[in-house]
Design goal:
The chain is mainly alpha-helical. It is built from four helices and no strands.
């Protein structure tokens, strides 16, 4: 889970404004509730700054770092489990699938807003 996130206050307000786009999906599939807030916040920020309309994704803190939608369909990777446990591979795969679906759903719905 995200330990620390820093952004402009307007982006926090935008998160709440656009939350309705993915709320049903998050409620039905997220464990714990609102897992993937970092993904959604990033997409909302890109939408607010106008990058998603251009098909670009930018790092607003360091704009010189090139960013792009890599078009992954297998999920967004991150450490889920710190130790090996029975079924860990299945849990990790489900987690990656959820985060990947959240990315695509949120990205597409934000793009459709114009």
């Amino acid at each position: 889970m995200t330990k620390f996130m820093l952004m402009e206050q307007s982006i926090c307000k935008a998160f709440q404004e656009y939350e309705y786009l993915v709320k049903a999906f998050v409620k039905a599939h997220s464990t714990p509730y609102w897992n993937g807030e970092d993904i959604f916040m990033s997409l909302v920020a890109n939408h607010v700054y106008g990058y998603s309309a251009k098909g670009e994704y930018k790092n607003c803190a360091y704009p010189e770092i090139p960013m792009e939608d890599i078009g992954r369909t297998d999920g967004i990777h991150g450490k889920v489990l710190k130790k090996k446990v029975k079924g860990a591979k299945d849990v990790r795969k489900l987690h990656e699938m959820y985060r990947g679906r959240l990315w695509r759903i949120a990205r597409d719905k934000l793009k459709n807003l114009g």
